[in-house]
Amino acid sequence: MTDTTAPAAEHHHGYITAKEDYLKRLRRIEGQARGLQRMVDEEQYCIDILTQVSAMTKALQSVALGLLNDHLAHCVTDAVAEGGDAAAVKLKEASDAIARLVRA
After folding, report:
1. Which of 16, 60, 70, 93 has a beta carbon 3.0–4.6 Å from 12's, enabling a disulfide?
2. In a 10 Å sphere around its CB, with 0-12 CB exposed, 13-18 middle and 19+ buried, how is residue 50 labelled?
3. Among the listed residues 10, 14, 38, the one whose alpha carbon sits nearest the alpha carbon of residue 97
């Protein structure tokens, strides 16, 4: 019996070369979220809280755009080079992700 849960070949995502950078940025964003909670708990000024929300939103968007760029440069490029249905699937995934980012 074949193990269908294991990939046939080892696959690395496009962001793998910048993984530590992404983790560092996400930890910083996590700290910003805790800071926002503290600001609300301490009943700080609304505009100061909104300023921090804006900074956190921009940081998340930056991570998202970086991941999208890595996906396009690696996963989509590889799928297009392979051709066939994989290319169409990866392009659709990227298009859907862009649409979600634009709506956010």
Report:
1. 16
2. exposed
3. 14
Measured in degrees and rounded to the nearest 5, phi and psi for residue 49 equal -65, -45
CA distances from 26 to 34, 55, 63, 70, 84 (A): 12, 13, 8, 16, 35
Q: Which DSSP string corresponds to 30-72?
A: HHHHHHHHHHHHTT--HHHHHHHHHHHHHHHHHHHHHHHHHII
Q: Of 61, 85, 86, 73, give the one whose Cα is nearest residue 17.
A: 73
Contact 26, 63 (CB under 8 A): yes
* Nearest-10 crossing angle of helices 19-41, 46-70: 160
Across the 104 residues of the chain, what is the mean pLDDT of every consecutive 10-residue run?
45 77 96 97 97 96 93 90 89 92 86
CA 89/CA 10 separation, integer angstroms? 20
CA distance 60 to 41: 23
Q: Position 16: which residue type?
A: I
